[in-house]
Amino acid sequence: MHNRSLPELSRALHARDISSEDLTRHFLNRIATLGGDLNCFITVAEDEAIHHARAADKRLADGDAGPLTGIPLAHKDIFCAKGVKTSCGSRMLDNFVAPYQATMVERVAEAGMVMLGKTNMDEFAMGSSNETSYYGPVRNPWDRERVPGGSSGGSAAAVASRLAPLATGTDTGGSIRQPASLCGITGLKPTYGRISRYGMIAFASSLDQAGPMARSAEDAAWLLGAMAGFDPRDSTSVDRAVDDYPALLGVELEGLRIGLPKEYFADGLDAEVEKVIQAAIREYQTLGARVQEITLPNADLAVPAYYVVAPAECSSNLSRFDGVRYGYRCETPRNLEDLYKRSRGEGFGAEVKRRIMIGTYALSAGYYDAYYLKAQKVRRLIADDFRRAFASVDVIMGPTSPTTAFRLGEKTNDPVSMYLSDIDTIAVNLAGLPGISIPAGFANGLPVGLQIIGDYFSEARLLNVAHRFQQATDWHTRIPPGYE
Amino acid sequence: MEWEPVIGLEIHVQLATRSKIFSGASTAFGGEPNTQACAVDLGLPGVLPVLNREAVAMAVKFGLAIHAQVARHSVFARKNYFYPDLPKGYQISQYELPIVHDGEVEIETEEGTSKRIGVTRAHLEEDAGKSLHENFHDMSGIDLNRAGTPLLEIVSEPDLRSPEEAIAYMKKIHSLVRYLGISDGNMQEGSFRCDANVSVRPKDHEKFGTRTEIKNLNSFRFVERALAYEVERQIEVLENGGTVQQETRLYDVDKGETRPMRSKEEANDYRYFPDPDLLPVEIDETVVEEVQASLPELPDEKKRRFTQAYGLSAYDAGVLTANRELAEYFEAVVETAGGKPKLCANWVMGDLAGALNREGLEIGDSPVGPDRLGGLVRRIADHTISGKIAKQVFEAMWNGEGDADTLIEGRGLKQVTDTGAIERLVDDVIAANPTQLEQYRSGKDKVFGFFVGQIMKASRGKANPQQVNEILKKKLSA
Questions:
Q1: What was the pLDDT predicted at A152?
Q2: What are the angstrom distances between the C-alpha of A139 and each of A381, A409, A476?
Q3: With contacts defined as CB-CB under 8 Å, which chain B residues touch A102?
């Protein structure tokens, strides 16, 4: 049951071959029996899940069901789900039960999907390995001594190990695509503004974007359709019709123009990873695509610009966690300053504090122009690079991450090396473009992700390009040993 | 040495929108603590602000009314600092690109000349909540009802040269925002409050002295007193050879003095940056034109019209147009009275204003409406009653005893204008006072007044005084 695609599950539910309750119990059972040492979930919402599955079964029985009704999924613990603990992977919110529902959570609930629980993540989405979580690291189901990537590591590992058929994630600098790559699943980061950010706990507001994580592009297309759309409660969401993504999956790739940025195939790229990517490109050529080398001249500025903009915004976004109204509060504060200092000092982990300090510095009087303003200018240069590239190609391809999954603890003491694991994904966020990572093969026995970047609001094309590849290959059907 | 004060004001005006500037919660005053604060106002994780278009329209209105530039593109920024009543740890405000800039208003100085005061900028921002330190289980409580209330911060140029000018400017802005209907201007409830920047310099010097900022003044009287105190204090410091410290000061209402805030409270680097949750505010020409067309007649224009159309003095026109309700009341009186604007003005500014003052009422609460006062003026104008009788009628109207015509009719107050009847009265009074008649005829003109008084008394005030005069003069000289 857990290896079936979303359309297969949907058909079975509508045919009443299975009930949503059975399906939900099946996944809850897998989480309980197989999920333990992976640590994918912060909260398993068993009672709520059964309750919603029964409601979905009623809708199915009443003929009031849509294609997603009754399908279980897991939400990254960054989305507020009313009445459920929403921790954002932090001690700061360990006691926080969201009193309201995120727009995206509301939308998929209205479509009848059943939330299994909330997945583990890097604290406040700040990390590339899921090791900064207050709830401990998630393990990669392909090798439990390795990281699943981050920050949506819990979602990626849960989908890869078939603990959930689908999951949601967020991507600020690669947090959907990089763990998708390292866990061998499909993860899409949509255009900035495609999915409402209301109720998604902010890390870096101008970069954060929610997206679907699934075993295939086809499943992701269905989930994206339910997540996307304009939301009057989010001023940065875009009022633009949502494409019928599943309907557009089948378009032939004959004549598709693929750009390969030479900067994405430079030093630092693991040779085995490169071989897998090149093989995937050849596969596209056999599918009728034409390949050309392109250049993104400002690619090397993406990581430095990101590590100014993202911390700057996070330093302000995380100011609300002050121990006054909700969240962690230190014991017996002596006065207001003590309350602030100890609540924040004890409630936040080291990486979060590091970024708050970097961001506070970058925004300080006398440094603002040199750092924040400069980084914003670099963002425009990077966006211009892509604009020029999309004048001559339809999609851009390259590795999602320069390496396969690294060992737990390998990079925790070297933040810069950790930051560089997002070197291929960050520019996409800075430009606000959509990008998808799909399984392209294996290197050193571990999954490798191919990243496909498209122009603004070209999610339908990205899913189509990914789907055609998945029709021709079976990398996305590989299951980590022990989770069959 | 003669010193000259240099003053600039930052006025915070609470805008009269129904909901908050970035959320749908109500802005009504006086609710139980935290009952008018939604998820957005509480700064819960994940919430986002959405700009209230009504607040933008109000800011544009103000900009046009002070002949300012309305920015086609303005930006909300975050002002970052920690305070318990600031739920997000930052205030959303406008910093580098405000919605309104480079305007001016005209004030009248003590000498009666007019002076232009520059308005540097006016920007939109959200208010913070309130900390409650008393009667709260020995802790501090936070009330976030006010958090997110829309404010327009209006920053003047340092063009004001005395506390009196500062008050005149503040009153002008107060009158303007009420005319525009963008604020109730209620100072007790904090809807209109100001910070003042003050320095002094030797008269004729161009360079400004070091300034201090006095925070959170919430009445015209306190502003005037605080400024007067601060100007004197700075002069004294300088005359004793000292230097003024640039600092923020608070006005102590009880002691009538300003004193420095703890320096820690102001040692903030606000780390302003554009709020990534909000798009820039784009205002196109059609919006500006629509707002322009919806502008009411403003005090300066109205005053000009009152002097020209009604022939009122500049002073009377100024008093009557100082607030929109009073001006509207006056015009309604004139309309019912069928003209006689000067007489109407006298009644509005005289008996009516006196009665309102006596009972501490606003014009909107007057028990005598403009129709009734107009009806009274009409009867004075057509000589149905004398001015003296009119005062009686006004008192009766004030006490809710009916309108002018009913009272005049019911109480027989109609003026006697029948020449025969007045002649009979005059004859009777002359006949009853032979001694006074003798005196008058021997040249004592003053006795004329005695006769008038007696005749009016005999008529119980109802005889037309002009006719009495004429007939009496004729009879006495006969």
A1: 98
A2: 37, 12, 19
A3: 46
